[in-house]
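Hi R.,

As promised on Friday, here is the backbone we talked about, encoded as structure tokens. Could you run it through your design pipeline when you get a chance and send me back a sequence?
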């Protein structure tokens, strides 16, 4: 390596020492009062030595497993949440009603019929209609993007299966997801508008496993509903390779998916009551539901385990923080934010007293950045928290997570701990979302980080003000 990179390393090492060390950089900051910082710091260090979080997510994945919206298993997850929160020592543990959509996958299959017949691995997108019992048989046309389909002549599309071949890029911050995912949500109606018979998409995922990635899609009201499924990435490659031969490619798609009547279920809520201002709330959220294919370990059993264990550790302190730390296991995030909407509605009079909200819903990778959506005058506090955790400080426009969206109009301040998502989208929404993908040490680092942050905000003599107008980014 060159001499220049050697110099850079030295500077980087020096900056790392300054930002994470216990030296002048911390004592010179103006954010956290020293007693709050000391307790937050000891919560952080103790959690790194080992927590119950892995046991919690193991229990959820082993004893409940897949728990999609509307299923009996979602109710079993609610019962698990109530039982587990009580066992962990939370107060006021309760189920809060939410109305859930109910969609079932049924049996599904796909095969290339010509020019070279082969079965493929696919999964219906959540919310898709089914096919007739003997399937849909049609020629496939490939498009590279949503915009590309709009430019096609309806005569080319009518009666065909449109294949969206959009590849998601791997990134630590998961930013490839936001760029790729519109195809999943909107692809079916955009193709149906031109007369397509069905839609296939390349999985929104970064792996090369033969495990397709499901996820929610939605239909536009005034357009015919056509079936939509995701091919695993290797099968998307296979289909593209047959199409590249120039010979017409035909495909048979069979989806047994169907919508059923809505059902009543619930979010689960529990509190660690504050010692001085119990009516003021620091909310730690995650979502209780999962997709149906895996056991929902990283999405979002991990997040629930992290938040429950972080709050439990705060509850174990000899002196509780000034404010209440509340954990909400939101019902059905994946298929329409049912629990989040119900919570914001049921607690609308109380949202002005929610002094912070955070959500853990990005797997189990280590925390590497803290971002926010708080009164800009309070950013020195966030900077101090970043130092305490030894992580970067992100911008002040972060929405914190999908379940926090419905609370945004009440300007609830948000702190967001970004997790390393480099491998998250290898497993996300697949049958491969299972417990073995979680490293307990990474989970502990998340618990340590959230415990320190939630404690610090709950015990501040002041607060984080109110968030600026508007919703932060996801
Ligand atoms: Zn999730």
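Update: got your reply. Pasting your designed sequence below so it's all in one thread:
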């Amino acid at each position: 390596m060159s001499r220049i990179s050697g110099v850079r390393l030295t500077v980087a090492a020096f900056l790392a020492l300054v930002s994470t060390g216990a030296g002048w950089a911390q004592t010179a900051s103006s954010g956290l009062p020293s007693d709050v910082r000391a307790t937050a710091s000891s919560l952080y260090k103790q959690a790194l030595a080992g927590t119950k979080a892995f046991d919690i997510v193991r229990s959820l994945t082993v004893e409940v497993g897949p728990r999609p919206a509307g299923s009996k298993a979602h109710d079993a997850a609610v019962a698990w949440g109530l039982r587990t929160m009580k066992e962990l020592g939370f107060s006021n543990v309760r189920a809060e009603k939410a109305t859930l959509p109910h969609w079932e996958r049924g049996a599904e299959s796909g095969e290339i019929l010509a020019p070279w017949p082969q079965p493929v691995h696919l999964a219906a997108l959540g919310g898709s209609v089914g096919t007739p019992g003997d399937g849909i048989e049609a020629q496939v046309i490939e498009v590279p993007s949503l915009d590309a389909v709009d430019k096609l002549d309806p005569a080319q599309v009518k009666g065909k299966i449109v294949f969206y071949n959009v590849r998601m890029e791997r990134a630590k911050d998961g930013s490839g997801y936001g760029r790729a995912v519109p195809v999943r949500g909107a692809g079916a109606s955009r193709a149906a508008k031109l007369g397509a018979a069905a839609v296939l998409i390349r999985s929104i995922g970064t792996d090369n496993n033969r495990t397709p990635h499901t996820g929610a899609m939605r239909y536009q009201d005034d357009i015919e509903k056509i079936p939509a499924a995701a091919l695993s990435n290797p099968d998307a490659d296979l289909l593209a390779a047959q199409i590249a031969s120039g010979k017409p490619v035909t495909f048979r798609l069979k989806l047994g998916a169907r919508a059923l009547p809505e059902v009543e279920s619930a979010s689960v809520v529990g509190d660690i009551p504050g010692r001085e201002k119990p009516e003021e709330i620091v909310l730690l959220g995650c979502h209780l539901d999962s997709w149906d294919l895996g056991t929902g370990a990283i999405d979002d059993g991990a997040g629930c385990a992290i938040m429950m264990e972080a709050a439990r550790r705060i509850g174990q302190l000899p002196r509780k923080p000034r404010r209440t730390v509340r954990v909400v296991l939101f019902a059905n995030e994946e298929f329409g934010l049912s629990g989040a909407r119900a919570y914001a509605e049921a607690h609308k009079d109380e949202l002005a007293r929610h002094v912070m909200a955070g959500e853990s819903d990005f797997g189990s990778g280590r925390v590497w950045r803290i971002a926010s959506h708080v009164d800009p005058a309070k950013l020195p506090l966030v900077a101090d928290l970043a130092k305490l955790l030894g992580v970067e400080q992100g911008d002040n426009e972060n929405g914190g997570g999908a379940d926090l969206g419905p609370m945004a109009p009440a300007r609830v301040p948000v702190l967001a701990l970004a997790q390393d998502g480099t491998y998250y989208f290898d497993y996300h929404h697949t049958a491969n979302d299972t417990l073995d993908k979680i490293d307990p040490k990474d989970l502990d680092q998340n618990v340590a980080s959230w415990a320190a942050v939630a404690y610090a905000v709950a015990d501040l003599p002041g607060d984080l003000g109110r968030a600026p107008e508007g919703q932060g980014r996801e």
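One thing I noticed while checking it: Residues 1-29 have pLDDT under 50 and may be disordered.

Thanks again,
M.
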